[in-house]
Fold each of these.
Amino acid sequence: MSIGIVGLSPMSVSQYIAQSLVSHYDAPEAQAIARLVLEDVLRIPRVQDLAGTARPLTAQEKELVGSIVRRLQAGEPIQYILGAASFRGRQFSVSPAVLIPRPETEELVGEVVRSVDHDASLRILDVGTGSGCIAVSLALELPHAQVAALDVSPAALEVARRNARRLHAEVRFMEANLLQADTMPQGEWHAVVSNPPYVRRSERDSLSAHVKDHEPALALFVDDADALCHYRCLAQWARLHLVWGGQLFVEINSALAEDTLDLFRHAGFGSCALYDDRFGLPRFIHAVL
């Protein structure tokens, strides 16, 4: 092999992976990726890796590590390479058709779970479901709720359906476009949750290469001239289809927090609260009709 890891122990492989990524990731993230490869790909427990007592790698495993490192150095996210990402303690299948679930979005789901009545037969809709991580998590954590989810992308919906089947979650999926009101579902809903596209195209260069060059642009970016288009359409639709007292939960662009909050207030939501994510950035809005 040309990558120089023949004969190295698994402990050395961990170090090799982390050191190979220092120009692409910060040190803690590079080390976390190295642990993922060891545990999820090579099935070597971290405790053995740290102790230097892990089994030697086979020739095939060494070749696999080299391939993974090359893909990582090319900017491909580790989650796409492994085909999975963790979200609220569960493993979700992911592909380049869907955004990789983020820790911040776990907080959005947590706010929904804290805010709704666990014993009521609520109708909850996830708008822009992607991998289905929000909808599936809500269906599992709110067993009395009827959860539905929509996305404009058939490929994303296939990933979401696969996750729901594998995790045994009852979710009704549908293809719809938030920006086209006539495709949106009718009826009355008790709660609506959404993590829509919100990164302005002018902000693209602020993103890391493994995000902007590999994750689906359709789920990430909006035009600067109408950066709140998804929130405006969501507010208009939810105003008509939420029950009185219904709740809306959204993830937002922190740079547009006050503008987004004003949008929901002007749309007729009587109670609108803005709250921060774990990094202290205004990231979520909880609005009540």
Amino acid sequence: MSFIQFQRNEEAARVIASYYETPPLLFVHSYGCQQNVNDGEKIKGVLTDIGFGLAARPEDADLIVFNTCAVREHAEQRVFGNVGALKGLKEANPKLLIAVSGCMAQQKDVVEKFRRHYPFVDIVFGVNGIDTFPALLCEKLAAKKRVLRMPSKREEIVEDMPLRRDSAFRAWLPIMYGCDNFCSYCIVPYVRGRERSRKSVNILREFHELVDAGYRDITLLGQNVNSYGKGLAEDIDFARLLRTLDAVPGDYRIRFMTSHPKDATPALIDAIAESEHISRHLHLPVQSGSNRILKEMNRHYTAEEYLALIDYAKRRMPEMTYSSDIIVGFPGETEEDFCATEALIRRVEYMQLFTFIYSKRTGTRAAEMPDPTPHKEKTQRIARVLALQEQVVAKLGGAMVGKTVRALVEGAGREEGTRTARLDNNMTVDFTGDIPEGRFADVRVTGVRGAQLLGRLA
């Protein structure tokens, strides 16, 4: 943190202390992806740094922050509804401050909607303004008027922001921000900006700190981690970064997301196969099995190229599991296109699928495409995907029965007296035993229930 920023935060702490009679409480709710979750941890960090405590419920808070997602229209409507529900809290407590941040706030029409229709919202700022939040609070309290920042481009990466992590054993570690892909259905490049990679020395320093602090599950984040290194002066790519981090001694796992298939390479697979700490699980969003639809989506790979990489990974690591994103009902998708997606799912055998009916996002190219398929037909197709996926998961889960696995305990299981833990391959197992969360346990898999493995301590 710069000396100037430190001085500003000192000033903000004084302003906050003089505004509230007792130490104020903060409530943050983050919507959407893991990048947003990490942004929420930064919001908590910069505000606890100036004197805020944390509230478990919005009703107990002096400052409520909704950290928003703009990937799907349904997510945006949910935010507007939840923000509207805060009006009563504001009327009951005029000193309550309400802020909206994140991807939605990177859209001018959204900021204008908050300005016109939500007068009780005090502060609005975008994804690259977290470090300025204390200054925005000071501005709001000093001028006694709303502070609504219109979206702006900001290319710099702010390092050393305070963080208040939500977990003592699982951590998110951003390695890059933004996206250059401009998939025709996706709003992310417009709200998160173009790709910007962190210097490897800063990533390595933060990684060392996490390992030394006892974090056991560290997930590298980026809108497209596979393009890490573009634009940096140093000669590095994602596979080499993985090898550098894997060389750090300790008892931990490395995960990463999200990977774009067009930038995933055999070198990446080799880095995983030859590593000690990298999870044998690959999340590789395919979106569709139809080459025609992939071209319309602007994905820059074919189904054959995608499957060739999967086949290479299966040869190198037979124990590897896979997950993916599937968009059903993309504009113009035919039954033939959809059948190609079903065939690809059968071929890969994903351990987990995140399936969505296409959501129109204003400002993207796909939003202007003809979309003649009735919604009912799209829901029938997604039901077919889910039924197919149930069969695949039952097969994969059944193959685990009888094996002894090492798993990281995450908390209480679904039934009394059980704990739930995550395997290296990202499957989860509920087992009988009393191992504290954040510890590794050897578990013998004894059965499977749906997508959930069952077991006991080995």
